[in-house]
Amino acid sequence: MKKIFYTAALVAGLFVAGAAEAQTPPGVLVVGQIAEPKSLDPHAVTAVNDFRILMNVYDGLVRYKDGTLEVEPSLAESWTISDDGTTYTFDLRDDVTFHDGSPLTAEAVKFNFERMLDENHPYHDTGPFPLSFFFSAIDSVTAEDEDTVVFKLKQPYAPFLSNLAYPTGLIVSPAAVEEFGKDVGRHPSGTGPFRFAEWESNAKVVVVRNEDYWGGAPSLEAVVFRPITDANTRVAEMLSGGIDLMVEVPPDSVATFAGDSAYAVFEQAGPHVWFLILNAKEGPLADKKVRQAVNYAIDKKALVENVLQGTAEVAAGPTPPAFAWAYNDSLSPYPYDPEKAKALIKEAGQEGAELTFYVTEGGSGMLDPVPMGAAIQADLAKVGLNVEIETYEWNTFLGKVNPGLEGKADMAEMAWMTNDPDTLPYLALRSEAWPDKGGFNSGYYSNPEVDKLLEAARSSTDQAERAKLYKEMQTIVHDDAPWAFIANWKQNAVTSSAVGSFALQPSFFLILKDVTKG
Amino acid sequence: MLAYTLKRLAFAVPVLLGLTVIVFLIMAMIPGDPATAILGSYATPENVERLNRQLGLDRSLVEQYFVWLGNLLQGDFGRSYNLNRPVIDEVLERFSATLVLAGAALLLCSVFGLLAGVVSAVRQYGWTDRIVTFFVLIGISIPSFWLGLLLVLTFAVTWRVFPASGMFAIYGGGDLPDLLRHLTLPAITLAVVATGVIARLTRAAMLEVLRQDYIRTARAKGVSERRVIYRHAFKAALVSVIPVIGVQAGFVLGGAVYIETVFQWPGIGRMLVTAISTRDLLLVQGGVLVVAASYVLFNLLTDLLQHLVDPRLRT
Predict the structure, then answer these.
(1) Is the C or the N end of chain B the one with fewer CB within 10 Å?
(2) Is B219 on the interface with A (CB under 8 A)?
(3) Would you put residue B156 in left (φ > 0), alpha (ψ -120 to 50) or beta?
(4) Among A448, A466, A463, A455, residue whose Cα is nearest residue A426
């Protein structure tokens, strides 16, 4: 027996000696991601998790200016827009090559968009391309000469530029697509500051410094993206030195890191809004007064402070403040006022009304939907509305909510993260966006004035003009209350103190070009 | 023996086929579809229809099943919608990771379970028995994901002697010692409950055997106590313990799902959970098929092993 103990002790000793849990090497940044990437082909993916890698390997024609959601030149040095807003002419940089050595040309850009959009393109079968509708306004792409590419749109479409800055607009090497076909997502080649090196499934994606980057080589030697799906495990890896940067820190753990000088905590509000869709077509909420009452009755401050533990801010209207240029900052959130809510409900004769409330168990951008739903139910009970919750798994939930709430429910949780102030209201607040017409207006809100403003904003190419129209839209929607406006999520991240020059972006992308690590 | 083995294997074919039909039907019946899962917020009916067409999901259910089956018979498991890679690559990679973890756990629980059971039985009601029983009961009662978190907190975060997650080091590593270091915490976590169960049953089986007449005869003949326990009693007790180990192997494979999540082990349990929630039909099919086939094989192996140990079955 003694022998066994000695052997066991020896083995354990060896492990510990061999261990000396290595800190990550200097110059190499290890990032804790929330999931395994689906593909490194930017046209084939939809998740922020994948975008975080892609934005460092590829460039688009344009990009968001650091710290904003405003568009600036990237692969395109400059561009002009025709007066009618349907012709965009881009002037490409002439000093750019893809990681595989092929040059960036106007033909390459044309190839990218035609691969996504043209069903007869020889490489269209390397998809599917789920977000190609971002560019469905494109009528034709022409390579005028080596460095000039012209997009003709079917009709004026103001979000076109910001869609180009979105990961779906990143430019992949046609040579790589031709060589790898459907597997190009595992052999990516772009023009970005980091070159793809290795993808070991379910363990890591490694990208290394692109010495020839047209914008100057990055300071990091390499970045390793590790998929760690469980949030607690991500925290444990951060605490044990296995990763240098983690995203989507659970609210419970933020305080642990904030109080420790070995770590730095980052927060950044993004283009996200969490709201309740209210059924404006039938039932008690068809009355605007009751919808406003719901907005007054919910204690949003308590929700973001207690349930979400400060990882979100109270939302004032349908447009998140991250769209600074289009955000109407004269609007303030509906104050928490149960008395006023009661009075409005009484006026509408809906005291004691019964409401059915769809709650999801999780889902992209949904934060903490079950406790939030329960807190909202309790707030509404205080003003005399009897809410019955029905909870569904995310995909089931979408299958119930997206076709419209009519005949099923009075309210439903929802959250959106978008890249242009046009997207959400255009898809979810117009009369032409009711579910039977293929939109997401599941609560059947309809206001001709809002419809007009949104159409006008979409066809204008003047940002100041668009801003004015969006602000007007927000004022009307705020008062009509087709939704209960609840929260804008703040993305967070933690880095070890060895990491420098890091900042989160309002786009929620992860830009690592200028990051350093000692 | 060979005929028996072949017969058992032949029986497995309809079982596995039936299973694929059931999985196919369940996946078709649960609400939500892969296109909606991929598109998320952008799942307009128009976009869903377009994507379904690209994924080949616009065909009838029966047609889809037979296309899948036809490809399967040619060794093609299809392509995962979500991972953009062949199902078979992903499934084999993930399944071998699970086998490593479950195998290590099974080894641990068999060795320590049997050992603890025998020691307990031999020293029935003595101090050793009480101490062993105490720990065994704790082991059975502890929720394994919680134990996993606790081990990570102690050995990875506080003392930093074992890595918190993953199967290999991100830098260097990749060799056997590296694997063993990553394997230690998850394998222990996974083995604890099964160890307790095996220990309890071994103890009971040993006590039962030790009361038999032939043991008394052996002792009366003057056979040494060590020989009585290990040659005569243990071998007899093993006959009733082996099927239990077989059942525990099933539990260990099932329990691997939680452990794989806590320790970020790239195994098939976690793969299946993700695949189901993203409605990745072909990946679910491939994964379930491989897991089910391994269950069938494992049961067969347990039965064969019992044939070897139990002379009464050899006729």
Answers:
(1) C
(2) no
(3) alpha
(4) A455
Q: What is the DSSP letter of B56?
A: T
- Chain Cα centroid distance, residue B89: 20
Grouping H, G, I as helix, E, B as strand and the rest as coil, residue B239 is helix
pTM: 0.85
Mutate to test the interface with A, among B170, B188, B276 (most CBs of A within 10 A): B170
Residue partners of B216: CB distance under 8 A and separation at least 6 = none
Nearest to B160 among A227, A230, A241 (CB): A241
For Cα atoms A242, A246, A249, give the angle at the middle one, nearest 5 degrees. Answer: 125
Residues 6+ apart with CB under 8 A from A49: A33, A34, A35, A37
Q: How many Cβ contacts (< 8 angstroms) between chains A and B?
A: 165
The full length of chain A comes to: 518
Cα radius of gyration rounded to whole Å, chain B:
24
Interhelix angle A288-297/A369-382, nearest 10 degrees: 110
Calpha distance B305→A67 (Å, rounded):
66
Taking the C-alpha atoms of residue A306 and residue A301, their distance in angstroms, rounded to an integer, is: 8
Q: Is A229 on the interface with B (CB under 8 A)?
A: yes
State the angle between helix axes of A288-297 and A338-347 in degrees (0 to 180), rounded to the nearest 10: 160
pLDDT band at residue A352 using 50, 70 and 90 as cut-offs: very high
> Cβ distance A87 to A150 under 8 Å?
yes
Tell me whether residues A395 and B161 touch, CB distance under 8 A: no
List all residues of chain A from 276 to 335 with a beta carbon under 8 Å from chain B: none
Tell me if chain B has a CB within 8 Å of the CB of A7.
no
Q: In 10 A of CB B29, how many CB atoms?
A: 8
Residues with Cβ within 8 Å of A77's Cβ and at least 6 positions away in sequence, in order, are A91, A92, A93
Number of H helices, E strands in chain A: 15, 20
Q: Which residues of A touch B51 (CB under 8 A)?
A: 128, 130
Give chain A's radius of gyration (CA, Å).
Answer: 25
Token pair recorded at residue A497: 């103190």
H or E element in which residue A200 lies: strand A194-200
In whole angstroms, what is the distance from residue A405 CA to residue A408 CA?
5
- Asked if residues A355 and A285 have their Cβ atoms less than 8 Å apart, the reply is yes
Write out pLDDT tens, residues A292-313.
999 999 999 999 999 998 899 9
DSSP SS3 for B295: helix
Cis before B186 (ω within 30): no
CA distance between the termini of chain B: 10
Which structure tokens are listed for A449? 């004035």
Pairing of strands A245-247, A28-33: parallel
Structure token digits, residue B284: 């679910």
Q: Which of B43, B164, B168 lies closest to A203 in CB terms?
A: B168
Model pLDDT for residues B51-98, shown as the tens digit of each residue: 888 787 888 888 888 888 898 888 888 888 888 889 999 999 999 999
Q: What is the pLDDT of residues B283-306, one digit of tens each?
A: 999 999 888 888 888 888 888 888
B149 touches chain A (CB under 8 A): yes
Beta strands, E only, A228-381: 245-247, 263-269, 272-278, 312-314, 354-360
Cβ atoms A245, A31 nearer than 8 A: yes
pLDDT of residue A7: 52
Angle CA B266–A199–B276, to nearest 5: 40
- B83 close to A (CB below 8 A): yes
Chain B residues touching residue A38 (CB < 8 angstroms): 82-84
In this structure, what are the phi and psi dihedrals at residue A42, rounded to the nearest 5 degrees?
-60, -20
Q: In angstroms, what separates the C-alpha of B41 from chain A's closest C-alpha? A: 7
Closest of B91, B257, B90, B40 to residue A50, by C-alpha = B40
Burial (CB < 10 A; 0-12, 13-18, 19+), residue B115, is middle
